[in-house]
# Entry
Amino acid sequence: MESILTSIKKMLGITEEYEHFDADLIMHINSVFMILNQLGVGPANGFTITGEDETWNDFIPANQQLELVKSYMHIKVKLLFDPPLGSAVIEVMNRQINEFEWRLNAAVDP
# Structure
């Protein structure tokens, strides 16, 4: 089972052992989970993490085709935690976020 926090750290280029930014990342991850909840993705009563123990399987049941949530989480947390300096890169990321939100919404509410 893949830890949500560990996988996001890996995608951001942070080693699993380096815990200095964990509190910040957990806060941003939980903010994105709130957005996902408002999009209708995940448990109806919401979802949060407190550390490395929560896994993607806890949030996305194995029978649901919502792997896109991982990419969405990565881009949203990247923009919150370590935004790129170039406005063109930010614009590309925002367009990708918009597409992901549309696709996730379509997946949970066909």
